Fold these 2 entries.
Entry 1:
Amino acid sequence: MRTSAERSPSTPMTGSNLASNPLLDLAVVHDHDTAMRAVDVIRKKRDGEALSASEIAAFVEAATRGHWPDYQLSALLMAIFCRGMNSEETTHLTSCMTRSGQILRHDEIPGPKGDKHSTGGVSDSTSLVLVPVAAECGVIVPMMSGRALGHTGGTLDKLDAIPGFRTQLTVPEMKSALRQVGAVMIGQTAEVAPADRKLYALRDVTATVECIPLIAASIMSKKLAEGIESLVLDVKFGGGAFIKDLPRSRQLAEAMVAIGKAHGVRTQAVLTAMDAPLGNAIGNSLEVIECLEVLRGQGPRDLTELSLDLAARLVFRAGVTRSLPEAHQRVRQVWQSGAALERWRRIVEQQGGDPHYLDDPFRLPRAPVRRTVKAEREGYVTSIFAEPLGVAAMRLGAGRQRAEDTVDHGVGIRLAVRVGEEVKIGDRLAEIWARSEQDACEAAHVVLRSCRIDESPAISMPVIRDTID
Ligand code: URA
């Protein structure tokens, strides 16, 4: 569906219109806003018109301070989803969302500040590997992430699976973590990126996620508020991504790179395929355990390689090394030596998490019903469809169907096969962890439908397809 592409004629998203437009000053916009009615702004966007800077500022202000009820915020999100936003509107939205809270600086902490963000995928837990690797290489990483969104997992929900791990830190606590262990992994707070905190949660449950302007503003507002100098974006495309096709994911990547550069953040986007799940695990505890396996050198190859590749790009962009090959070497060295794993232990401990889970993963929550799914025909696995598996994990409880739902960290699916493997009847395709037999049975049907088995093997494609600087 192309509903949310940028439709209106627009000026290109350049650096100058971001940095110097006085209309972006929230303080100026405020004064006009008292008389602005939510219903008029919604109607205007519903009818396909571009919103003014002050209307966008009123919307962001309302999301931040609770001036509009959720149904009006959601109605405007849906209107934006259906009608799109031009590049000027996207720029205004990002800017207002960034300024909805504090914009951090970490000048007092020595070292280059950098981060990575993914547009969202299934079994996409690269952050839990990249953060300790990059920190061990000398990058200071103030990572602000989101919760599960739609059928995709969220870094914060995965971290919450670790007993005691706190993702809601105050700014002084965050800075202290950066000083002590060189990295922190947190969510949007009332102090930093509060508008995204509200809008992200509403989008998750109102079918308004798959929208280029909303994704760009959501991601870049968090990243610009973090106080970083370099950023690597993992922009996914394919069946398991929010943006399915390569041209539109390129459009999203270009929009975010332009916003980053306009704010003086060295930004690179990497376009990566997300048709099959990246790793084997789908579900919060399972993904945390899989990342531990990756840090120990025993994880799935695709998750390991992409995590290390993105980490190397960040290390290079942050200026730690003089070339990308040198960054790759450095990253592999800290990974192979076990130094990154030890850094992860310190990061977990620093944020209140129980580091003993590293030695005993059974300390993480695990649902009681375990079921094995077996192949019903023989042949080669030619596709594993990520999106239905992501939805199945969400239905098991790994994500939310309503805003007030609590996430179940112990449920999920662990695949036992990869695309390209040969299977015989009765071979294991996956293990499911569920709260009830019925849930497990429903998920098992999805696994069987999602693993396509053919007589001949498929041609394998690389995960990274392109980069945008
Ligand atoms: N990640 C985000 O932070 N926001 C989105 O909209 C999608 C992925």
Entry 2:
Amino acid sequence: MDKILIVEDELAIAELEKDYLELSGFEVDIETNGSIGLKKALHEEYNLIILDLMLPDMDGFDICKKIRNEKNIPIIMVSAKKDDIDKIRGLGLGADDYMTKPFSPSELVARVKAHLARYERLVGSGVKENDIIEIRGLKIDKTARRVFLHDEEKIFTTKEFDLLCFLAENPNHVYSKDELFREIWDMESIGDIATVTVHIKKIREKIEYNTSKPQYIETIWGVGYRFKV
Ligand code: CA
């Protein structure tokens, strides 16, 4: 049976969600305290987390980030403020879905089911966890050579994929354009290293929320690029 953790300080809302989910056959725990909720999410076996953004002791942003650093399970974030949804997306915390309160409990159940089904397909398809690089909402599936940003697939050319993958596999390491050119294009820098710049630009357009303030691939002026973790 799939086990769900609801981290929510408004008990009436949590109880309502729990009732609906239990009626659909899920096992549900409620935690009203943020830091205890985080501990449970990390150390107990849940299949999905429903996480409220505004909690008295610790906010949902931090909790989401910390769960995502260690676990791949679906996280649905809920908030009473519509504006928060953009903020959550912008921060790239790796949440799988966002809902604004008030929402209908049956809508929640439908989304829970969809996320669990997708997650089970992913796990069941034999994709090994080490073949997927996942950083702040960006998922690079090395086996299938596919890239997802908040679960939305982004189409990459072969070289764009190789370049992104190389940088992400070697995070926080600064590479010059020359080095990247040799690494990805496999030639002794005979070609034009401006190719690297062009490819970085294209990658950013696909994965960055704001290309002038990149959160994944940083430009280190006069040196090169690095993938920030
Ligand atoms: Ca709350």
